[in-house]
Amino acid sequence: NAGVMQNPRHLVRRRGQEARLRCSPMKGHSHVYWYRQLPEEGLKFMVYLQKENIIDESGMPKERFSAEFPKEGPSILRIQQVVRGDSAAYFCASSPPSGMNEQFFGPGTRLTVL
Amino acid sequence: GEDVEQSLFLSVREGDSSVINCTYTDSSSTYLYWYKQEPGAGLQLLTYIFSNMDMKQDQRLTVLLNKKDKHLSLRIADTQTGDSAIYFCAERGIRGSTLGRLYFGRGTQLTVWP
Prior knowledge:
The complex is a heterodimer of chains A (114) and B (114). Chain A is mostly beta strands. Helix content of chain A is 0%, strand content 49%. In chain B, strands 2, 4, 5, 9, 10 and 11 form a 6-stranded mixed β-sheet that branches. The N and C termini of chain B lie far apart (37 Å). Classes of the chains: A mainly beta (114), B mainly beta (114). Chains A and B meet through strand 4, strand 5 and strand 10 of A and strand 5, strand 9 and strand 10 of B.
């Protein structure tokens, strides 16, 4: 059973470009969470999604950031018009439909904005 | 559940026990977690405990919970150099739409000296 997959592992963008980060949850998991980790900080919650539904997006910046988890395919975190302050590690986690007691994390995408 | 505090650094000698401490804010029933992060990697779930328990043991790991003081600790017995990593304490949200999110501390950098 493969773990949570994220790609790309490293992403470099210039200011003003778009960044798309992908997350494939563990098999059988229908809950996906996105977190952001700034250098030397803990992880900060961004958004919680189930298939085709956004459950809690209160941790997402109001502008430029969006997330989706379609019926088919991976969850996507999209950052439009990136700025240097968006440089961080973005982690995805998933949990099974039976409960949210365990969240399993992917390896992360490290975004660098030049 | 937004203020999870940890000391930032801990150094121990190989073979000694390590104790990593954490305080959390929410006094209601919740789940509390310990994650391990190695350099450049994602978070590995080590163990978790429900707040009606005082202790949980899993091989070299012992979690102690003092609910009155909102204090959580992770003890690693016979610490090895491979245990060197950042250890994150996390508390699960308990209210409504925050049920899905984890609140993380800033992490404790454990360094094990040979």
